[in-house]
Give the backbone structure.
Amino acid sequence: MTFYAQSRLHTEQVLAGFQGLSLGALIATLKTWNDERITRRNLHRLSDRELDDIGLRRDEIDLVAKGLR
């Protein structure tokens, strides 16, 4: 029961952050998040040598995924 109550509270907090967003904005946010997740996953799978070949360091992966580099 405690887990359910904690889980429900967390879910309500997350959903409260989406108040005022249109469905289109929510979908765009989820698509952006998923694209960043896929980019991060694929870059983390590369070896250090492969990352060096494309001019990246492992600590730059998050920046690349967010489009900041």
